[in-house]
Amino acid sequence: MNRDLNPVVLKQQISSDVESNVISIKIDTEAQTAESESLNEILNWGRLANCKGKMRLFFAPKAERPQARHRREAKAQSLCIVCPVQTQCFEFARQHHEYGYWGGESEEERHRAGFTIAAPIGIRARNQLVH
Fold first, then answer.
1. Which of 28, 82, 106, 131 is the most exposed place for a label (fewest CB within 10 A)?
2. Tens of pLDDT along 57-111?
3. Residues 83 and 100 grouped into a single domain
4. 128 and 94 in one domain?
5. Percent of the chain with pLDDT over 70
């Protein structure tokens, strides 16, 4: 009798295949759950942020002059100082290498602290071209 057609062997093989698929589905589901919890956490603290609706203060417009940037970031900082979620925002920006002013910290400050962004702009970009 052909071993592949043996009902006992087929049953064991099917059982093994099902178990491994169940394990991989469970692992995938756990990873998606962790991602969902992380996203929910971000969305929850974002709802409490003082900057909600004031994004123009936190991201530079095209061709912004240094003096204008300083004034804009000073206004942003005044909101960040009293923000109930400043710590979460600060950590998020560092972990995700964000552009803009986050959690009381500018791109330049994050760069000096070792948290660089993928495509630097402004002074950092000019300095990198010179060196």
1. 131
2. 999 999 999 999 999 999 999 999 999 999 999 999 998 889 999 999 998 899 9
3. yes
4. yes
5. 57
Picking from 5, 95, 78, the residue whose alpha carbon sits closest to that of residue 41 is 95
Residue 54, SS3 per DSSP: coil
- Spatial separation of the C-alpha atoms in residues 58 and 79, rounded to whole Å: 10
Structural domain including 109 reads: 49-131
Tally of structural domains, the chain: 2
Single-letter amino acid code for the residue at 12: Q
119 and 81 part of one domain: yes
Q: How far is CA 29 from the centre of its chain?
A: 20
Encoded tokens for 115: 């948290």
With beta carbons less than 8 A apart as the criterion, state whether 110 and 92 touch.
no
Domain match, 60 and 90 both: yes
Long-range CB pairs of 22-25, under 8 A, 24+ apart, other chains included: none
